[in-house]
Amino acid sequence: MNITSELFKLKDANYKNFQSQLVPNIEKNTIIGVRVPELRKFAKSIEDPKIFLADLPHKYYDENILHGILISEVKDYGYSIELLDKFLPFVDNWAVCDIISPKTFKKNKPALFEKIQEWVSSKETYTCRFGIGMLMKHFLDEDFKEEYLDIPASIKSDEYYINMMIAWFFATALAKQWEATIPYIENKKLSPWVHNKTIQKARESFRIAKERKEYLLKR
Questions:
Q1: Whole-angstrom Cα distance, residue 14 to residue 1?
Q2: 35-58 tens-digit pLDDT
Q3: What's the pLDDT at 99?
Q4: For residues 62 and 171, what is the distance between their CA atoms, to the nearest angstrom?
Q5: Which residues of 62-73 are buried (b: 16+ CB within 10 A; e: fewer)?
Q6: Amino acid 62: pLDDT
Q7: Which of 11, 31, 152, 184 has its CA 20 to 30 A from that of 65?
Q8: Where are the alpha helices (DSSP H) in the chain?
Q9: What residues contact residue 98 under an 8 Å CB cut-off, 6+ apart?
Q10: Which among 83, 95, 93, 92 is positioned nearest to 34, based on CA atoms?
């Protein structure tokens, strides 16, 4: 199967135009225009994805989205990490970064946490963003510890897509772990931009009570 050729058969010109506006930092001619549900369906039809997963870098945005989907479906934790280590350096936009959500992570929290610490310290924008995203997804519920909040709070970056993820992390933390998180807002432990964006995103959340949103407005 020629995966690239098959993707072109699934292209949607309107979706390509729409997606190019959401990921303005990549060239529009690298976007084929395949909708994510179609990519997920197509991923299931690939009997042996190893050749595709080894063929890096890809030319097209849609190939990278497919790559992220395929990694997410891998059943072996060690193999998923091996694939991520090879793929993350080639991720060049937020959409590909955020589509990656390996199912193996849920049952490998201790090892995952060690890996997250490596990712968030990366100088690569989307490797760092991915690490923050995984910390948010897997360590703000039953595995939460207050000191985990220091990890994204200590990241100092001028990169928009890193700072947006830090704000998203803290807005989610306010929804899930209010008492532990609110001191970071009260004591202004975040950069001014991240502080303000966190409050904005928290006030847009349906998971935060009205009185708490009003309190945030004063901070």
A1: 26
A2: 999 999 999 999 999 999 999 999
A3: 98
A4: 29
A5: bbbbbbbbbbbb
A6: 98
A7: 152
A8: 3-9, 13-22, 36-44, 50-54, 61-73, 77-87, 94-99, 109-120, 125-138, 150-153, 160-176, 178-186, 192-204, 210-217
A9: 129, 133
A10: 95
pLDDT value at residue 77 = 98
Q: What is the mean pLDDT of each run of 10 residues along the chain (219 residues)?
A: 94 96 96 98 95 96 98 97 98 98 97 98 98 98 97 97 98 98 97 97 95 92
Q: Under CATH, what is the fold of the domain 120-213?
A: 1.25.40
Only one residue has tokens 């369906």, namely 41
CA–CA separation, 118 and 105 (whole Å): 15
| Assigned token pair, 132 | 């923050």
Write the CB contacts of 9 (distance below 8 Å, at least 6 apart in sequence).
none
- What pTM was computed for the model? 0.96
Domains of the chain, by residue range, sit at: 1-107, 120-213
Look up residue 196 and give its amino acid.
Answer: N
pLDDT number for residue 1: 76
Q: Tens digit of pLDDT for each residue in 52-77? A: 999 999 999 999 999 999 999 999 99
What are 174's two structure tokens? 């306010």
